[in-house]
Model the fold of this input.
Amino acid sequence: MNRGREDAASMRVRPVEEPVRPFGLRMLLRLLAAAMGFFLLALPAMPFPRLTTAVQAQEASPQEGQTSDWGPYRTYAQAIQPFDRSGSLMTQSAQDAARKSRGCTAADCHAKVEKMHASEAVRLGCIDCHGGDATASSKEAAHVAPRDADLFATSANPAQVAARWNRESPDFVRFVNPGDLRVLDRTCGTLGCHVSESLRVRKSMMTHGGMLWGAALYNNGGFPLKDTRFGESYAADGTPQRLQTVPVPSHEQQLEDGIVPFLNPLPQWGVGQPGNILRIFERGGERVPEIGVPDPREEPGLPDKNLSIRGLGTGNRTDPVFLGLQKTRLLDPLLHFPGTNDQPGDFRQSGCTACHVVYANDRNPEHSGPYAQFGHQGRSASADESIPKDEPGHPIRHRLTRAIPTSQCMSCHVHPGGNMETTYLGYIWWDNETDGDLMYPDRPKKLTPQQMDRIQRRNPEGSALRGKWSDPEFLAQVSQLNPELKKTQFADFHGHGWIYRAIFKQDRKGNLLDAQGQVVSWDDPERFDKAVHLKDIHLEKGMHCVDCHFEQDVHGDGNIYNEPRAAIEIDCVDCHGGLDQRAALRTSGFASPSGGRDLTGLFTPWGRKRFERRGDTLIHRSMVVPDQEWEISQTVDADPAIDPRLASAHEAHTILNSSGQPAHGTDRMACFTCHSSWMTS
Done:
């Protein structure tokens, strides 16, 4: 993140006796400055005079203790290094691959480590991905050393690494995690491997996060344009870079498809300008205050804060939204950084491996599938004897997979705790008072400033300072309290250190309801088993996120999108069909390619077709659990004569408007308009 810092030496304090310019002229100059600032931030993509090629940039990469003079803005095409096209690693022999792993797999090192790629057709040596020296005779010579040896003291992912990850050299980042976005040109994105995916994921919404930054800045007056103009992306050396859609989208594409031409890094927060210029007429204004110098004439609790003596964007008058984006954890970390790796639900690495290398985050089989057996403490179950089995921050195994459980997705899609995937699972980051008698100590805690800082680095919510869950050991086992809870149930994942509470079906009087709509007593010891847990129907059937969101939905299509809905390829009708026809098994969402993607050409990790027709029956096979499959219901079959529970759905589907057309046709109304039982946003 771009964390700005005001240079105290540059601050000029105007003497009291200095004559003050007329208010009207001063106001006009500041308005002009604000307009110019907004104009510059909103400029369309254009070449910059100090841009260098990627090769030149790599050669000029600053050494430790030096700073780069490139400036923060570089085009996407120039920020990534050219792919190696001298030859594909896929053509090397098994002997070549073994030679590149000889020292790594020696008897006293990683002798029993799993192959990262399950397919025997992939012939890669350890250093093809990780770098390092496979011929070295010592661990120190074979491994790439970090710049911050204290932070990376063990082989585990360090907790709360944050922006310190960007300070490490590309060689070390590659050694620790070849899937990191900064080094894909030398690993996953080389010729013959995953070139297209590596290019597209760098501009994916899960990488840049522009949808939240844009919404927060526009809605809070921090930036005047509704289309987002800011997103997170870093070059190989860890410096912020600009992203661009290539080719530049037309006006129609921007308007109708939600594609934006570019995203800039966030400016340093200290130059942010207040969104509402009229706030200069706030209470006070007798004199311009000096920062840090109290005025004895001020009324208690009503400080005389006005425009700073240096004008907009300085001193007391910076924009709190730009600052808040960089200090809060509403959408952080994204794919450029590892997870915080400090509590269940936050264990993961960055880039490709954030998804494709599974960590133990959740003991619930519905959320983790076959990985639930490995617990939720981020510990290794690898055959590699050199990896500690009692240390958090390790993947379950040294293995890439497409069988990605929902719990792995949740390590990112926890944000901001009340939408996206939490609603899919039927949980929400909610109030911290329900069943609070078990969550707070009998007497208030007395914390030192150092203890408070340590707690809030893990969990920014204010109540964590008072609650028991600020203790990592208590937090890790909080779901064990479920038998004692009276009003809710706790999840087994705790992203950001938060506690997620289950949502159960209730009537307007607050009574629990079962699947037949009958009241379940709050005194019933089996009330939470009888009441409807309002999780998604797909989860209830055993499906995971990857069963519906295919390759493009997770990697992107190379365009930069303004908001999540515009970037989604799949739609409900692609699998369930419409009101008058069965599913065509072609994608039709907002981001689907022309003509849609043929879903019959998709395969599971075990080589079976994901979709198969058996007469009028449509079969969908699991991407996570081998041999699990489902029969997909079709909308046209919603016949109350077959199942009385379908009566209301059948009626809704057949209501006609005055023109004789379906009132709820899928061309005008999304399925989830009615089929979402609850949603916070």
Notes: The first strand starts at residue 243 and ends at 244. The radius of gyration is 28 Å.
